Structure formats: structure tokens, C-alpha cells
Amino acid sequence: MTSLDLLAAATALVAFSGLPGLLFRAGSNAAQRAATVLHVAGCSAGCAAAAWALAGAPVAVRFAWPLPGGSVTFALDRLSAFFLVPVFVIAGLGSIYGEGYWAETRHPENGRKLRAFYGLATASLAVVMAAGDAWAFLVGWEIVTLAAFFLVTTDQNDARALRAGWIYLVSAHVGTLALFAMFALLRDATGGWLLAPSAALGSSALLRPILLLALAGFGLKAGVIPLHVWLPDAHAAAPSHVSALLSGVVLKMGIYGLVRVFSMLPAYPAWLGLALVALGISSGVLGVVLALAQHDLKRLLAYHSIENIGIILIGLGVGVLGVAQGRPDWAVLGFAGALLHVWNHAAFKSLLFFSAGAVIHATGTREIDALGGLLRRMRLTGAAFLVGAVAICGLPPLNGFVSEWLITLGSFRALTNGGAGVGLLGAAAGAPALALIGALAVACFVKAFSAVFLGSPRSPRAAAVTGDAVRSMLAPMAALAAACAVIGLWPAGAARLGRDAAGALLLGRASEGAGADLTALGAIPLVLVAILAVLCAAAVAWARPAVRTTTWDCGYAAGSPRIQYTASSFGQMLVGLFRWAVLPDELRPRPDGPFPAPGPRFESHAPDPVLDRLVLPGLTRGRTFLGLARVIQAGRIQAYLLYIVVTLVILLAWSASS
Amino acid sequence: MSSIANLAAVLVLAPLLLGVINRTKAVVAGRSGPPLLQAYFDLAKLLRKGFVVSETTTWVFLAGPVVSVVAPAVAALLLPLGGRPSALSFTGDMILFVGVFSLARFFVAAAAMDTGSPFEGMGAAREVTFSALAEPALLFGLLALTRTSGSLSLTGMFDLGASHAWQKASASIVLVLASWFIVLLAENSRVPFDDPNTHLELTMVHEVMVLDHAGPAFGFIVYGAALKLAVFSSLLVLLLKPAASGSWALDLVLFSGGILAVGVVVGLVESSMARLRLVRIPQLLVTAALLAGFAVVLVLR
Questions:
Q1: CB 3.0-4.6 Å disulfide test: which of A335, A475, B109, B137 passes with B289?
Q2: Partner-chain residue, chosen from A376, A396, A517, that has the shortest CB–CB distance to B91
Q3: Measured in Å, how far apart are chain A's first and last C-alpha atoms?
Q4: Is A618 exposed, middle or buried (0-12, 13-18, 19+ CB in 10 A)?
């Protein structure tokens, strides 16, 4: 038995985990229990397979296949295994979370459908990561897309969810189209469908179009600005554990696709690194700025996914520039940081979606300005959100700091040992950009955490919350918070894992001593946390006999929760600075007379600048023109067959004549 | 051992820096001003007082003051104070240096929001906004120093004598110096970004953010702010002082004198100009980032 066999068994188990439940009647607890048990068992086996592959040698298996391509190949190496770990961990924890969050008894109309497609999505993600050739990859990719569509539209009566689902489906297929073209060109350049390193690729004239198509197709899935149009709505509309899966794992499929293509190259062109750094900086900065302008808790988290994809791209860019400059010493830092950030983002973003989901479950609203004061009623959920918030801001001593530390150090490393040129400048730009992104993220998460959990409740809904989430929702949060802490406190081990997975990306350029910096952080976060814990305990002990009174209100006796600073006011100044990118919709009614009557209030909304300002208006305007094409779309199968025959005949004639 | 002694000296001297600034301002204004040691008296009084805590608050409210002291203390641990190697030095420590200040900002701002008061919300929002713009300037400066010294730790970076930074890249160092002075004023909420003297005005940043902290918690905040100012002043002194004399005591005296001299300069700035309008502040911070970015370009050519 190999790790691939175990993975195949795990994938099959996960894929069919939701099917037995379909035999039970709607609303049955047994259906839910069966799906969760099978899914968690499959995910545990999948984790074991991934761990095995991380430690062992790569394995591959090839089946003859009577369809185009001739065969289908599956391969499992360290890079695949590294990406498989979050797939199974997040999906497994998500299905436990779903027990409480989307309980069958509360959602009899769509709970079984959700579980069936959840299992299918997990399994097809595993297929994508374990694909050894373009066919297996694209088949897995397509099933993920379709399953994710049904997951986003779980609540099929919700118009917002349906809209988000359709936008997702259309844009995902635009991306798939780019991938079809990319794999076709790749086959032309390498002479086969295998996703294996190819020396012929380096001198191929097709290299540039292949890489550009990969950036477009995979970038669309990963949510790189300006290709992120599907992302915020889909994440916000889906059930929270599905949002966690989308953000923590499905986006990473795009990153996996990119690094898989990179690992096939014999050398990196320098422009690729510069493009990655530029895309990363724009996604990172604009993602967090757009997040600052949101009122919807899950949309805010969704924009932070864009930001984190930006950070990963900066890391990849630093790595690619390092290899292109013949400097594995900083390339390994960039790649290891980028890959480790894939894990880290999966951990803290799922943690945030789980805890945000618990808040939404308890209050019934995603509106940040309707929440507040929840930390005292939902202690553990609040603590989990705080851990996730500190981690996502890249603050010591949690896991986000470790990966951002690696990428920043790679950026600094680029400026040592002389050298000059635009490549160095590109790599060096990573450090201040990460600092800006991190500082803006601090602003955004102080806003989100304090508006939701601190102060006093801003609405009756928030005030009516009586208790914390149920245990099946708290346990996955605890596991993820522990993961954030372990990676943060044991940075050397995590960095080595990232380095090992990144081996294939160095294109054989690694040398002795490259990556000695990886372990420099050592036990320092541990010391920091020990000092903080001791002092916090001392402060709490000191403060025990404190006098409790109201917040200082300047003697105004009729204070109410409405006087609190809202999330919108908190972000207003930064959003104002980036008005050129956010393009908010504002309603500013002018008060008239000395005693203005209560009328329309000031309102500010931040629709997505690309989707709602560019894509949708553009498509609406183009509708009359595109309507002309409906003439050939008659809805008759015979006509479509005729088109295919005619096209084939023309192609045949063309290929015969040339 | 001498590194630890230098660290202890900075920890003890930090509140004196506030006294020096206030005395400078008083002298310029023709007043006699509070005693130089007033900050120590205040701290002693605050630590002896009882706690008064708002009913809305949670444990986050207490975490803010604690982190605000630990963060600059850890940062001081990483700096080569007084020309001695830092007490804790490793490859990439400058990233932790920046990180701990962000951690402190997160918790101090969250503690402010915990009170549910609009004043504190306003202060916290401004604090996180201004710091977000100041952070790239700090990183650009560190990048320039990495390039001139070839070192990836603060101790190596600030060994300007060994790296001949003033001889090789004096223009860059001057630019970084100017940029970091602006960052110092912004990060520590001094004029022209904030006026530490105006209590309960809607124009303030730091002071209004800690309005509800009382007694020992406020003592922690005051000491943390003084230490942060001392650490940022140390950055400037380290840039200006290229060589060590070899004598530990002399170096320490020179270094402490340098930190207090930065205090005098800050006091002179506060005496000679008014607060900027709020909308002008981001522009000045972007200027600081551009100055330091220019320094990087100069050493990269």
C-alpha cells in the first residue's frame, strides 16, 4: 500500500459521505450523524495519507483510459501533500461544526443536500491536488466548481445566495476557459499532458502566453484583484462552514495550480516575479481597504481572503525573483513563507468564519453595526475570534506572524550581498507593502472585533443573546485556535515544513546553507507569550477589587449604546484616504431649518468596485449587442449539432490545406 | 552584562524624557514648569491608587495596558542600546521589533473600544489610521540600513561605524533620520500630530483613547508611552552616533544624553508649531514614507 492508495480510499469515503443520508427522511438526525461520521473518518484517513506523503517519497499511478489523453495519472508529492493537509483538516472540522450550525432538525429542506455536496466538494479538492495530468486536474477542478455552486446556493429560496451562486458559476467558468487554453498550450510546449517538470518549456515561445493564462485562470479562482468579482458575495451568502471551506481551501486551489505550473518550468523569467509582487501588493492593500468599508461581517472576512492571497503572491514573487537572480537564500524564504501562509490562512480564516458563524447563529444578523458586547455572553466564541484576529493581522506570537516574518525576511535578504537591478527593487518592495497591509489589517480587525464583541449591544438582537455556541461548534474553533498557537510558538518546525514543500519550486537551485535563516525566530514568541501571560495574570489579580461604574460620559445621564463609535465611523478615515479605490455610495441628506425633521439619514455603502461598477454595468450595457448572438442560440439540439459539424468540416478543410 | 545594564538604564530613564520635554516647553514659554521628575511622581501616585473600571468592559480592557508596557520593553531588548550588542539579537529581529508595536496598538485600541465610549472610539480610530501610514516609513528605513550594513539584525544594522554608513551613504542616512523623526512624532502622538496637553478635546488621539483607564492601569499606559518614546528616540540616537568610545560608562552617558537631547528637540518642535489639521496628517506621514523610500532607492542604485 502507498500513501496514494490511502488517499484514494479516504477520497472515496468523503465523496460518498453525504449519500447514505439521502435515504433517510428530511429532518432526520440519523442522516446528519451518518454524514458527519463518514466525512470525519474520511478526512482523518486523508490527513494520515497527507502526513505519510509529506514524510515519504513521491508516488504516482497511471491508469489506461479510453478517452482523449489515453491515460489518467495521479501523483502525490510533498507539494500536493502540503496542500492536502488544509483540505482535510478544514473540511473535517467544518463538518463537525455543521452539526450545530446547520442542524438537520432546523434545516430539513436543504440539510441533506448541503452534506452531499460538501462531501463531493472535499473529495474533488483532493482529486485536484493529487492530479498528475491535465485531465484529472480539470475533471476535479470542474467538480469542485459545480459542488461549490450548490453549496453557495444551499438556501435556494434566498435571492442573494442565488445571485452570488450564479456570479460564481459564470466567473469560475471564465477561469476554466483560460485553463483549457493554458493546458492546451502546455501540451503543445511539452508534448504531453503530464504535470511534470519539462526542459522544453524554457525555450518555448509559448512560455509567456502559458504563464499569463495561468495567472488569469488560477488568479480568478484565488480571488486576485481585479479577478475577485465572485468572491465576496459567495463567501457571505454561503453557510459559515462552507465559507470557511471556500476561503480556507478552495481559494488555495488557485495558488496550488500556480505553484504546480511553476514547478514544471526549468527557469523563471524575471517578469513573472515582478508581476506576482505587483499583483500581490495590489490585492493585499486593496483587499484590506475594501474590507474596512464593509458593514457585513462575512463580506469583511471575504475581502480579507483577497488580502491574504495577496500576501501569498508577494511571497511567491519574492521566491521567483530569488531563483531568477540565482539567489536561493532569499528565494527559499519567500517560497516557504508563501506556502506556510497557505496553511496559516486556512487555520485563522476558518477560525474567524466559524466564530462569525456562531455570532450569526446566535443573533440572526451579519450586520456589524447591529452587534456589540457579545464577549461577555459568548466568552469562548469571542476569545476564538480574538485569536483569529491577532493571527490574521500577522502579529506575534501567533501563526500569521511566522509566515509574514519569513516573507519579509526574504525581502530584506534580497538587499544583502550586493547586486542591483529591478529584481532587487521588486523583492524589497515586499517588506514595506507587508507592513502597510498588516497595519491596515490591525485597523480592520480592531474595528470588527470591538464592534461585534466589545462595548454594549447596539440592537435588541445582540442584547437577547443568552449563551455561547453549542459544543459541536466550539470544538472545531478550539482546534483551530490551538493550531494557530502551535505554529506561532514553534516557528522553526513550521518553517521547515514549508521549506520541504517548496523544494520543487526552487528548480534544483537550492544550496547548502540556503534557509539557515528559516529557524532564526526560534523560541522567541514563546518567551514573549510567557511574559505576557504572567503580566496579564498579575494585572487581573491586581484589578480584582476594582470599583465598577459606568463609562465616563461627561456627566450626561441619558447615555445609550447608540453613542458608541460604530464600525463604519471607525473605518471612515481610512476609507476616505482610499476613496479612489473603494468608490463608496454615499447618501448625504442636508438638514433644513434650525430644527430639521427626522428624515433620511446619512448612509454609506461599499459595493464591489469591479463587479458593481465595471462588470455588471458593462454587461447590462452590452446586452443589446450580445442579444444578437441569441439568433444562433435557438434552443434546438439539432441546430447545435449542425454547428459542431460545420465547425469540424471547416477545421478539417483548414488543416488539410495548410 | 553591560547590555542588560544599558537596558535597565533606558527602562529607568524613560519617564525622565517626558520631564525633559515639558521643561523645554516651559523654558521656551517663559514658565518654570513642573519638576523634571514629575512623571515619576505621577507614576508612583497612579500605582498606589485604586482601580475604577467601567461596567461595560471585559478582560480586554486590562490586556491593553499590559501589552502597552511589554511591547516597548521587548523592542528595547532588541536594540543595541548604548553601542553594546542588544540583549537579544537574531536574524530578522527588526521584524519582531515592528511586530510588537503593532500588537500593542491592537490591544490598546481594542481596550479603548471596550468602554463603549465615543471619545475612545474616535481616539482608537485615529491611532490605528496614523500608525498604518507610519509603518511603511519604518520598514523603508530598515531596508536602507540593511543595504548599507549587509546585516539582518538590529545590532548589525546600527553598527554604523563598522558599515561606514555615514561615509558611503550619508544622504540616505539623513533621509532616514528625517523620516523616522516624523514617525517618532506620529507614533508617540506628539505635536504636530496630536497635542498631549489637551484633555477632552475632540482633536486628540492618544490621550482620549486612554480616558477611561484609571489608577494602576493608567500608570501602565503612561509608563508604556514613555518607554515607547524612549525606544523611538534611541533609534535616532543610534543613527547619529556612528562610533563607540570603548568605555561602557562613557558610552552609556553619551547615549542617555542623546535620548534626552531628542526630548529637547521634541519640546522645541512642540513650542514652535501648532497641531496640523486632521486632514493634513496623512499627507505628512506619506511624506515620511516617501523620504525613507527615496533613501532605499539611493542605496540600491
A1: B137
A2: A517
A3: 51
A4: exposed
Chain A: closest CA distance from residue B131 (Å): 7
Contact B53 A543 (CB under 8 A): yes
Return the half-sphere exposure (C-beta side, CA atoms, 13 A cut-off) of residue A32.
22
Instruction: Count interface pairs A-B at CB distance under 8 A.
Output: 239
Q: CB-based contact (8 Å) between B282 and chain A?
A: yes
Task: Mention every residue, 6+ apart, whose C-beta is less than 8 A from residue B44.
Answer: none
Query: Where would I find the beta strands (DSSP E) of A121-273?
Result: none
At residue A176 the predicted structure's pLDDT band, cuts being 50, 70 and 90, is very high
Q: Which of B113, B163, B202 is nearest to A372 (CA)?
A: B113
Query: Do residues A472 and A33 touch, judged by C-beta distance below 8 A?
Result: no
Q: Any idea which residue has 457585513 for its cell?
A: A296
Sequential pLDDT tens for chain B (301 residues): 788 899 999 999 999 999 999 999 999 999 998 999 999 999 999 988 888 888 888 889 988 999 999 999 999 999 998 878 888 888 889 999 999 999 999 999 999 999 988 888 989 999 999 999 999 999 999 999 999 988 999 999 988 877 788 888 889 999 999 999 999 999 998 888 888 877 655 567 888 888 888 888 899 999 999 999 999 999 999 998 777 777 888 889 999 999 999 999 999 999 998 888 888 899 999 999 999 999 999 998 7
Region of B68 (left: φ > 0; alpha: ψ -120 to 50; beta: rest) is: alpha
Kindly report the nearest CA distance between residue B132 and chain A, in angstroms: 5
Task: For residue B122, give how far its alpha carbon lies from the nearest alpha carbon of chain A (Å).
Answer: 7
CA dihedral B274, B278, B280, B281 (to 10 degrees): 90
**For testing the chain A interface, which of B102, B183, B294 should be mutated: the one with the most A CBs within 10 Å?**
B102
Helix (H/G/I), strand (E/B), else coil: B31: coil
The pLDDT-based confidence of A336 (bands split at 50, 70, 90) is very high
Suggest the residue from A446, A526, A574, A575 to mutate for an interface test with chain B (most B CBs closer than 10 A): A446
Q: Which residues of B touch A569 (CB under 8 A)?
A: 121-122, 125
Q: What distance in Å separates the CA atoms of residue B143 and residue B279, rounded to the nearest whole number? A: 29
The Cα-based distances of A52 to A46, A57, A196, A509 in angstroms read 10, 9, 21, 26
State the complex-level ipTM.
0.95
Q: What band does A71 get if pLDDT is binned at 50, 70 and 90? A: confident
Q: What residues of chain B, 221 to 280, have a C-beta less than 8 Å from chain A?
A: none
**Beta pairing, strands B52-54 & A547-549:** parallel
